[in-house]
Amino acid sequence: MRGFGERVADVQRLVRGARRIAGDPALRDAIVRSSGLSREGVDRAFERHLETDPSDADLASLVRAAGDAERVHVVLSANVFVAALRAIALARAAATRVTVRPSSRDAAFPRALVEAAGDPAIELADEADLGAIARGEVHVYGRDATIDAVRAAVRPGVIVRGHGAGLGVACVLAGAAGDPDAALRESAMALAEDVVPFDQRGCSSPRVAFVVGDEHRASRFVRHMHDALNAAEARVPRGDLGAGEREGAARYADAVAFAGELLRGPAHLVGMTRHLAVPPPGRHVHVVPAPSLDDVAAILRPIARQVVAVGLSGAARRDAFPAHARVTPLGRMQRPPLDGPVDLRPAVRVSKDG
């Protein structure tokens, strides 16, 4: 059995591979074509969201979180291409043999990463005969329906760890004494830094923002959020949206325009109602006024299981938010350390035979 230091070294080999491919312009071009992100969006992902300099403490935490398995089969999602590094690193920390099946929609990055790492223990597979997997674990990233399908396909006794859909939420706390609009503007600009990456398709991407205070304060935040996303679009244009995302945005806009306040940008929507609504990915933010943190906690309760990340504009009680969520300052939600799974919810860990 490998020792702890060997596992860390195996993860470090993957990190070095990520460093080697990060500056490859041909790879970036391929990801633009496959992901639908703009070139500026792909460049931003490499420069700000690929974890190529983890600390020793982060790597140790990741290895401890990985567990042990005889073999791990990784089924990747296409939503956040740099997430392949973390997914493969967790699998390699856990097992001496790893098979990686990239998404057919976005295979360029995981293929380049595995090749650059040069680890003979990791192999790529275009297709995976899930019914032939008789031992070890399957780590699945993607929609809940995908996880269910994998669980139904594997043989009895195979463990399936599912990392399903999630979302991020922001909380704009009551401002300190001074210029209240300046504080709201600063919070909106920081939140835009979290909305823009991957065009909001990641499980940590914030799509709902609670503004602690009255509706007037929340309405002012809507305006600042609209301005911040307009400015972000000028720097990092949004890429192409899928048909389902466009249809979801149209439905969201119709509902919010009828029930509350809606501002439309060239590549975003910012809406506000007194009730919770979750817009689809595509750089859309729904604002909910909340008199207090207790109200935020109550409104979140029905969707608490889905919340993966929380971004705050200042200090707040941790117990107001789901215990499993990563809590960071606004502007840092999409930059978690390489210290384990991004999604800290208990992974679905089940075998076909129960």
What's the name of the CATH homologous superfamily of the largest domain? Aldehyde Dehydrogenase, Chain A, domain 2
Q: Based on helices, strands and strand pairing, what is the structural class?
A: alpha/beta
- Determine the strand fraction and express it as a percent band: 15-25%
Largest beta-sheet details: 7 strands, mixed
Count up the helices: 11
In the CATH hierarchy, the architecture of the largest domain is: 3-Layer(aba) Sandwich
Averaging pLDDT over every residue, what do you get? 93
Strand and helix order: HHHHEHEHEEHEEHEHHEEEHEEE
CATH class group of the largest domain: Alpha Beta
Query: Which stretches are low in confidence, meaning pLDDT under 50 for 5 or more residues running?
Result: none
From the alpha-carbon coordinates, what is the Rg to the nearest angstrom? 21 Å
Overall morphology? globular
| Spatial order of strands in the largest sheet | 8-9-10-7-6-11-12
- Helix percent band: 40-55%
CATH fold group of the largest domain = Aldehyde Dehydrogenase, Chain A, domain 2
Distance between the termini: 28 Å
Give the number of DSSP strands.
13
